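Incident log, support desk, overnight shift.

02:14 A customer reports that sequence design results differ from what the structure should imply. Their input is reproduced verbatim below. On-call engineer (initials T.W.) acknowledged and began investigating.
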């Protein structure tokens, strides 16, 4: 079965064709990073406009790259939540029009489920159940993947996501956008023990994360140094900050593994490309004797292939939508992808 995946939740316009949820036939991404770099972050209105301009060409290129026509596609999967609402609507409405005109099933895919499915493309032998650490610019979750479409959140951030915490701290250090990637690079040159930073915990919820206090500690450190006229060693601060963030992520992930007894570990999302996080997770796998699966670096960020992969499993589970399908800025990852289920309006993803 060949699924065309459409992704436009943030600032990448992406399309891909995937066969049977495991084999990538094509993957095309139009990135807006250079344009948003001017503003130090993603500007939602600009992102939506660029999606509108790029989506037709990106989809056509994905079909051409795979050597397929739309007549050879069996279903169209699209990200419908969560994300920037204007950006989501561009991809969703395009996918709806394409599905309607071609007479193809429309399959709604939750963005974070897509990130998890990137592991199915990188590791064709991986099957649920497994425990997954989902970390990106807007999300930090510990998820029990009980089946391809049955997922349970064990822990989540109470404030900033890990990627957001990296980007905001990087900006305070004067590192240009996208800061998290450059902070990771600079941290490789620094001393992680140079600056003692806190490791925040959430009382009563040992698997939840909180990064706002850690971010504030770095802001105060920089502010106090500036008032004293002292120069801060940025690589050392990057290394210390990265060590603290990754330490929180891995410690809670280890705790989730002990609590659930799930025997297989995985990670997903843009921050899963972080060098230290990958090393620490590999160490965790060795220490616990549990197999660890990490997505290929080119599948860590947003892409259409991960949406097509998860779309295959959503389709197999009977999750299809009609033209009434709407986009949601927030929606629980554990909710069934069926359009008939209510939006989780009061929760943080």
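02:41 Re-run completed on a clean worker. Output:
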């Amino acid at each position: 079965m060949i699924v065309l995946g459409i992704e436009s939740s943030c600032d990448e316009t992406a399309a891909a064709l995937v066969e049977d949820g495991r084999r990538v036939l094509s993957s095309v991404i139009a990135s807006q990073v250079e344009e948003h770099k001017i503003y130090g972050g993603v500007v939602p209105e600009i992102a939506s406009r660029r999606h509108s301009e790029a989506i037709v060409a990106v989809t056509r290129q994905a079909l051409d790259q795979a050597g397929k026509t739309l007549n050879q596609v069996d279903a169209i999967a699209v990200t419908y939540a969560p994300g920037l609402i204007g950006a989501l609507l561009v991809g969703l409405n395009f996918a709806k029009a394409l599905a309607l005109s071609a007479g193809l099933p429309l399959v709604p895919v939750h963005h974070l489920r897509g990130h998890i499915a990137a592991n199915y493309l990188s590791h064709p032998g991986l099957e649920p159940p497994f425990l997954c650490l989902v970390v990106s610019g807007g999300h930090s979750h510990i998820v029990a993947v009980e089946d391809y479409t049955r997922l349970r959140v064990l822990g989540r951030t109470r404030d900033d996501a890990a990627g957001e915490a990296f980007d905001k701290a990087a900006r305070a250090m004067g590192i240009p956008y996208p800061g998290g990637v450059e902070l990771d690079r600079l941290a490789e040159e620094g001393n992680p023990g140079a600056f003692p930073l806190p490791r925040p915990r959430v009382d009563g919820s040992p698997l939840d994360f909180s990064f706002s206090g850690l971010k504030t500690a770095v802001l105060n450190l920089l502010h106090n140094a500036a008032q004293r006229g002292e120069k801060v060693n940025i690589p050392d601060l990057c290394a210390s900050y990265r060590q603290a963030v990754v330490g929180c992520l891995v410690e809670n992930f280890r705790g989730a593994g002990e609590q659930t007894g799930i025997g297989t570990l995985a990670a997903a999302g843009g921050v899963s490309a972080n060098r230290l996080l990958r090393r620490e997770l590999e160490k965790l796998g060795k220490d616990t004797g549990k197999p660890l699966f990490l997505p290929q670096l080119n599948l860590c960020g947003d892409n259409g292939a991960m949406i097509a992969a998860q779309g295959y499993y959503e389709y197999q589970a009977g999750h299809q939508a009609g033209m009434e399908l709407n986009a949601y800025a927030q929606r629980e990852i554990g909710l069934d992808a069926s359009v008939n289920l209510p939006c989780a309006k009061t929760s943080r993803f």
